[in-house]
Structures are given as structure tokens and as C-alpha cells.
Amino acid sequence: MLFIALVKFRGTLSEEVVGRNLADIELDTDSQVRYVGAYWTLGRYDNVIIFEAPDEKTAMEMALRRADRMEIETLVALPADAGSPTGPA
Fold first, then answer.
1. Could you tell me which of 23, 25, 7 has the C-alpha nearest to residue 69?
2. Considering the entire predicted model, what is its pTM?
3. What topology does CATH give the domain 2-78?
């Protein structure tokens, strides 16, 4: 499954926060999360992360590991060419 995470840091981005995120990335890859892309953004969110996970539970665990230092809104992403009840987008 493909997911998009919209990330807002809670406070100042420090070396400690970066170090914890790197450790979390290792845990994520152990739980079958594969990062597709990570982008710094201007505006409401600090980062946009695109990742694959086997299921919603794994994606939620990834976000919960960071809940103390980030607000994360996670979206399930479906290919636009997969069609919809009204036809392809």
C-alpha cells in the first residue's frame, strides 16, 4: 500500500530529533516500510513523506513512533489511473 505523510515538527528541529528520526527509519525498514520520497516543504507542513507499507497498521505504527515530536497526517494513496465509480480520473 502507498501512503503520504504530511509532517509538522513540534518545536525546534535539533540534532537529537534528527538522530531519533534516523533510528526510527531503521525500525521502519525492519517492519517492511519502504520510503519512496521525502521532501521539505514551505507552508503548513515541514515535510511530505511518500512511503509503502504492507498495511494500515504498519503505517500507523510508523507515525506513532514519532508522535512525541511530530504531528503526522497520513493519507492512503491510490493511483489515479485505477479508476473510480465515475470512471478514470
1. 7
2. 0.81
3. Alpha-Beta Plaits (3.30.70)
Sorted by where each begins, the domain ranges of the chain are 2-78
In whole angstroms, give the CA distance from residue 25 to residue 22: 5
- Cα-Cα-Cα-Cα torsion 71, 76, 77, 83, nearest 10 degrees, comes to -150
Each residue's pLDDT, cut to its tens digit, for the chain (89 residues) gives 999 999 999 988 889 888 888 888 888 888 899 999 999 999 999 999 999 999 999 999 999 989 999 999 999 999 888 666 565 55
Cell numbers of 80, please?
489515479
Residues 57-82 as b or e (16 or more Cβ within 10 Å = b): ebbeebbebbeebbebebeeeeeeee
